[in-house]
Amino acid sequence: MKKKNLLAIGLALVLSLTLILSGCGNGSGSSDSSSSSKEDSSSSEALSGKITIGGSTALQPLAAQVAKEFMEKNPDVQIEVQGGGSGTGLSEVQAGNFDIGMSDVFAESKSNIDAKALKDYQVAVVGMTAAVNPKAGVKNLSKKDLQDVFTGKVKNWKEVGGKDQKITLVNRPDGSGTRATFDQFALDNKTPAEGITQDSTNTVKKIISETPGAIGYMALSYFTANDDSVVKLSIDGVDASEDNVASGKFPVWAYEHMYTKGEPSKLVKAFLDFMMSDAVQTKDVPAQGYLSVKDMKVQRDAEGKQTDK
């Protein structure tokens, strides 16, 4: 009788232990499976939707190239990139019409923009200089002569060492970030004289190339290799090169900003992260004629003050 009781107790203990171990095993397996499924879902979750980007025509070529690459990696994403100028980029992103507003200037510089409502992403640096028709016969001007040309004090290229050719000014409109940058850092905020006014950098370049004696200004990214339709002007003997911009020797440059209205959506944030990725910053940014912010040895604040990094 005693032996039977002991046997029954032993069988009960074995059965209980088996059930406990089985329960633990199933719980662990279920947890791992759920975790694994969650990770796979997160890592493979596809991006989809539309992004509208607009504003600065100086930044437009880079934005278009990066958008193309992003869409190739994410086939369900559609990105529209348009120009219109920095003023348009800032006002339209503030109004909620653009997901990303491109600007060559800080939002703080525009009186009609609530900079505190916008989030600033400095995605690149752009150098700018004057573009001159080859028939003008000049490749370099002192800063003073350049200012005299744009303010109308000098009306013929022969007055500053060029050919006997009337000067035709090609300006950007007031809302242009390229104009704001050129006016501030090349003209020292002197008011340019009346001339032809065009909003598109491509149109400005075309007019200059087709008009003997014409001068305007544009981002360095628009001066392309093997294109001698316009002359890239040096200032005070300093070449408008990427190295000289990065070191601060050439003064006419600006950050290229991408602004969002408040925190960006998941899709827009993914695009901005891609824009700042090493692949884009080390390949696309220089290939398109811009400088990576990481390569700059100097920096500027919203008031235009330049200091060493």
Automatic annotation (TrEMBL):
Write the record's keywords in alphabetical order, separated by commas. Cell membrane, Lipoprotein, Membrane, Palmitate, Phosphate transport, Signal, Transport
The membrane topology of this protein is: Lipid-anchor
| InterPro entries registered for this protein in UniProt | PBP_domain, Phos-bd, Phosphate_ABC_transporter
Q: Where, per UniProt, does this protein localize?
A: Cell membrane
- Record-annotated PBP domain positions: 42-278
UniProt feature, compositional bias: Low complexity: 27-36
Which Gene3D superfamilies does the entry link to?
A: Periplasmic binding protein-like II
Xref: Pfam families: PBP_like_2 (PF12849)
Which region ranges are annotated with the description Disordered? 27-47
- Superkingdom assignment: Bacteria
Concerning CDD domains, the annotation shows:
PBP2_phosphate_like_1
Write down the NCBIfam families for this protein, in alphabetical order: ptsS_2 (TIGR02136)
The UniProt family comment states: Belongs to the PstS family.
What role does it play?
A: Involved in the system for phosphate transport across the cytoplasmic membrane. Part of the ABC transporter complex PstSACB involved in phosphate import.
Q: Quaternary structure?
A: The complex is composed of two ATP-binding proteins (PstB), two transmembrane proteins (PstC and PstA) and a solute-binding protein (PstS).
Write down what this protein is called. Phosphate-binding protein
